[in-house]
Amino acid sequence: MIERELQIFASELRRLRLAADFRTGKEFAAAIGWIASKVSRIENARTLPSDDDLVTWLNSVRADEETSTRLRDQLVDIRVERDRWKQQLRHGHSDRQRDEAIAERDATRIVSVELFLVNGLVQIPAYARSVFELAAGMHATPADTDAAVRERIQRQDVLYDPSKRIEVLIGESALRYPIATVPVLRAQIDRLLNLIGLAHVRLGIVPLDALQPTITMHGFTIHDDTVIVEINHAELTVTDADDVALYNDIVDRLWDVAAEGEDARAVLMRVQRAIYPSG
Q: Which fold has domain 2-82?
């Protein structure tokens, strides 16, 4: 169903381009300042345009108001259907992890914010296994757990890429949430302790006793000028400039109260003692 909707949408954009006397995608790309492959990917339904991309396209082909409104609404509907977890995970989690790796490879700035789970970029294999098993059960999707864990751990190579700026914000609540066994939680905290001071990675823990400077109801990731928001039934892709600015403001506010460096180490050690006391 989603594939057919994508093809119809792409064909409509191509029809508008031809009607505006742009006889080739290469000619159209040159006129609007894009690379030709971007036009090709959109017209062949291999990628969806962003909101801004669609506005540029519609303005360039002089689409009327009714057509523009219809196509903007259609883009929203396609994006919502595409981003449903049932659709994304229909073959399991490993494909999704490979897509994430590509997005992270292409991004210059990566920001990950999680208040209820440890962020995927810093999960240990055993913790990731618990997450994938629970998610597969919740969405009734194929459980390719071993492959998914391998792909997630391979993604973490990006943490050591000096060309990236990476920010990881974790709520203390996520460290205390018993999504895995106590030994796994303890090992996960050890992993975070070892990441403190890692070059190119800014790691922060938002303490439970800190006066919260903002409200965020869900985790999210920022790749440059795109925000990916994970909610229970779907993943939402946000490209509107004002909305992206809102998420960046949330990040800035959380950094105002987050513990970093030795302060983060103290929070992690406190939690570790609480969930797995020695002796």
A: 434 Repressor (Amino-terminal Domain) (1.10.260)
